[in-house]
Structures are given as structure tokens and as C-alpha cells.
Amino acid sequence: xxxxxxxxxxxxxxxxxxxxxxxxxxxxxxxxxxxxxxxxxxxxxxxxxxxxxxxxxxxxxxxxxxxxxxxxxxxxxxxxxxxxxxxxxxxxxxxxxxxxxxxxxxxxxxxxxxxxxxxxxxxxxxxxxxxxxxxxxxxxxxxxxxxx
Amino acid sequence: xxxxxxxxxxxxxxxxxxxxxxxxxxxxxxxxxxxxxxxxxxxxxxxxxxxxxxxxxxxxxxxxxxxxxxxxxxxxxxxxxxxxxxxxxxxxxxxxxxxxxxxxxxxxxxxxxxxxxxxxxxxxxxxxxxxxxxxxxxxxxxxxxxxxxxxxxxxxxxxxxxxxxxxxxxxxxxxxxxxxxxxxxxxxxxxxxxxxxxxxxxxxxxxxxxxxxxxxxxxxxxxxxxxxxxxxxxxxxxxxxxxxxxxxxxxxxxxxxxxxxxxxxxxxxxxxxxxxxxxxxxxxxxxxxxxxxxxxxxxxxxxxxxxxxxxxxxxxxxxxxxxxxxxxxxxxxxxxxxxxxxxxxxxxxxxxxxxxxxxxxxxxxxxxxxxxxxxxxxxxxxxxxxxxxxxxxxxxxxxxxxxxxxxxxxxxxxxxxxxxxxxxxxxxxxxxxxxxxxxxxxxxxxxxxxxxxxxxxxxxxxxxxx
Lengths: 148, 466
Fold this sequence. Notes:
The complex is a heterodimer of chains A (148) and B (466). Chain A has helices spanning 8-17, 28-42, 54-63, 80-93, 108-117, 133-147, and strands at residues 18-24, 46-51, 69-74, 98-102, 121-123.
């Protein structure tokens, strides 16, 4: 006997509201911040939050090229080069992904380079995440309109 | 002639030092070798005096001539002034000299210059790490720019009147540094065109890419902070901001953008990407001026504000839809295939079959150039031979029949059970995508058992009620 925790209506609603949020960061502060703020930022959508290694992000996006998702990527001082490579590849294979760069350690010169490669937003600290709620809402609204 | 001080003290110090040091006269012969050379070379140093030490000069079979020649400086030292070599002198007798690093310096200039050589351990070639990273980052950026340059070239290629007009316009745009409006439908390649224009008209200048619809005034300030910082720090600095979907940018963000452009005029330049026929925002809209219907519908009021229209009127580039450039499609498709082959993405497919080209020509390309690019990538991945056939093209392209709306083809008669089943599959796929394929987690999110989820995945055409 199978049990369902939701009515059939709830089943359909929740399935349609899940949105993937990938976090690729060395510091735990970022996944903690996403877990804290993402549910409020994305309501009524539900974030499915997961930590990824860079190679896992690209592998995941390669198999799901049209995925509507949020990606928060921490770029540290010693990893700007890798970030350039990864960001360029992601922009080519999955340009629709909403990409947030966490750039706490970077100077203006590095940020300018990353800005040319393209990202939705750059933030320095976790408390700046909630300010992106409006952008996220617009992003997912536009995504659902495109799907329709 | 003036004379220098006595060199006896210097000579004593050099002899006490183990490092080999020698001097070569303007005529190219050895005139001095320190005591360190004796230990290194294992010969009587007086035997080497007046022997020729010039790179590339003929050398006799005399081992001492060959030894002297091995101490010669690198070619071109008299012009450059300094140089370095790793020198491995030949074996003389039974002594085997070790290879050492040597630094050469020219003293004086012209025909009277002499050369001093010092052997030893040096650590002056290690690359500054920051410089190395900066070079590598620059290489990445150059690669990114080359990619957009290639796409821009292909997007504007063709023999149609529309493509010829587009290329003329782009040529003018690339020759001048001014605000430019690029108008065209989604997917027409305007971003690559704009980036290419920027590279040609303003090489080396910083550029920031902004998603117009996602901005508000505060976010715009934050996004452009690095550019503003540059422009504020130096009165000579110049920068460009490229805004995607500028006509869908909220009015307050447009106003902020106009303010920034006016503040840093003419050093901050705007490249605006807009739809083909943007509306005009005649007045600033706020919450109170919106109708109740608009507020309830949370509808975005989009268009370009008059100030931005005035700014973009400096130069406009209209990029027509791909459907109006039908005769360019074969050339563009072939160019895209060639570009991917050159990038190493296709090791097999070399050409597109005529039948496939016919399909590409007939298809209306609602997604424009980007959709064509994706179609060629898809076909390259699918093809196994040297020729791309119809069967390798995406389903939407190869199944298109003229006279039918592409959207209607997807909704031919389907039973209710099939429709429900498809919807279930869509929800299941979305849940799986959100949890990266973890079926147990997906089942929990969907509120069903894992076994039931697996049954639905394995047999999607069967109803649970059968």
C-alpha cells in the first residue's frame, strides 16, 4: 500500500515549484547562507539546494542544457583562472542559468574580467544575497513565460 | 685619457672568490679569467688568454681553442647589452667541467665594448606569480573574445541584401566609439555582434555585461561599481556597458543608467540590445499610476525611456530575423560547421548534405541564429559519418512541414491518458533535475513512494489505475 503525503493536487503543485540551486564554494558560509535565505527569496518556489564540485556542475549542466537553475560560485584569489574557464564554458553550454559569483577576496581588476565573461550578479558577503530576491523572481517569471 | 683606480684589490677579491669570471676584449679574445675559472675548467688559465671567444666563429681542432669558444657570449649581446646562457665547456684531458649558468654584460658600446661574464647560481628568472596569472587571465579573455568574433562573422555572413546592409552598418559601428542600439529578435546574435564591435572600436577597454530586466537602480549601481571605480579613479579611463534586453529594463534602472552615462559622458559608452520594435515609455511609471488590472497581473511595463532613445539614436544596427535571410542559411550553417571543426568539436562531420540543407532552408527559425547554432551542434553530436543528414538534425527542424504552425505540430491529436502521462513525466523530470537525479529524494519531494516513482519512470504509458 503506497502512502502519499500530499493529495494529487499537492503532488502536481510541488513538482512544478522545485527549482535547482547549485552551490560551488570552498567556504561553508555560502551554502549556509543559501540554505538560510533561498527559501524566502524564492517563495512560492521551492529551492532544491545542493553543494557541487566544479566538475559536477559542468557535468550536470551538460546533461540538462535547458535547466532553469541558480548557481552560486565562489571565486577565490587563487582560482580566478579556473573561474574564467568554468564561467566561459557555462555561458556557452547553459547560458540561461542564473549565475551569482561570490567574490569576497577579489579586487576590481579581477571583477572586471569576470564581468566581461558574464554573470547575473557579484556579491561579496552572504548578507547581500537577499537583495537579489527581485532579480530571482524576475528570472523565474521570465523562464516560466518562455516555457509557456 | 682618464684612468681608473688600481684594480689590485679587485683582483685579489676575484681570485678569492670561487665564482668563475672572465672578460672578452672588443676584438673577441679572452683577456682575463679569474681563479674560479681554473677550478671550473681544470686548465692553466694563461693558456686561454688571447684565444678567440666569439659565438659562431670558426674554431680549430685545438681543445684549448674549443674551450675558449665555449665561453663566448650569446649572439646579439653587443646589441642587447646583457644576456644569459647555460655553458657546458668541453672536456679537456680528464677534467669534466660542470654546466653552469652565466650572465653576460656588455661594458661600453660600439667597437670598443668589452664583455664581462659571471658564472654561478641565479634566481632571477622566476616569474612573478601575479604577472603569470594576469597573463593567463588575459589569454582566457582573448579566447572568449575570439569566440564572439567568430560568431559575429558568421551571424553577418551571406549574400542577401539584409546581410549586406548589416555588414555595412557594423563596419561603421566598428570604426567609431559611440553609443549604439542593436535591434533584433531574441537569438539573432546581437550580443556577439555588439561584443565584436566593442573589440574593434575600443580594444583593451573594459566592458561589463548587464541583464536589463533583472536590474533595479541599486543593483545596477552594484553591478557597474567596478566600471564606476575605474572612471572615477582616472580621468582618462573609458569603459563600456552592454545591456541585454534594454527595452525590458525597469524604468527606474533606465533612469539610473541615463544618469551614469551623463555623469561620465563621453567616457562611459552604452551598447544596448533591444527587441525589434521597442515601445516608448512616455512617462515615468510608479505604483500609483499603474491601473488596478496591471497591478493585479503584476505586468511589467516595458519600453525605452525617451532619454535612452536619444542616446541610442547616435547609431543603430538592425539585425533582421533569420527567416528573412533564407538564402544565407546554407552559408551560415556551413560556416558554423567549419567553425566547430576548427575548434575540434567535430572530428567526423565535414559537410552538410543537400537534403539537410533543404530542411534548414525550409525551417522558419523562430529562435533565429542561436537556434541554427544549436541545431548544427546537435547534428555534429549525432552524426557518425562525414556528412550531416536530415536524420541528424533536431526533431523540430526535420519534422517541420511548410504551411503548418510549428507549435501545432506538437499538439496533434493526443489522448487524455497520454496527455496526463506526459505531464506526469514532465513533473518527474523536473523533480529529478532539481535533486540531481536522486530518485529517493525526488520521490520524497513528490510525496510518493520510491517504488511508485520507479514504476512511472519505467512504464510511463501505463496508468496507475490499470
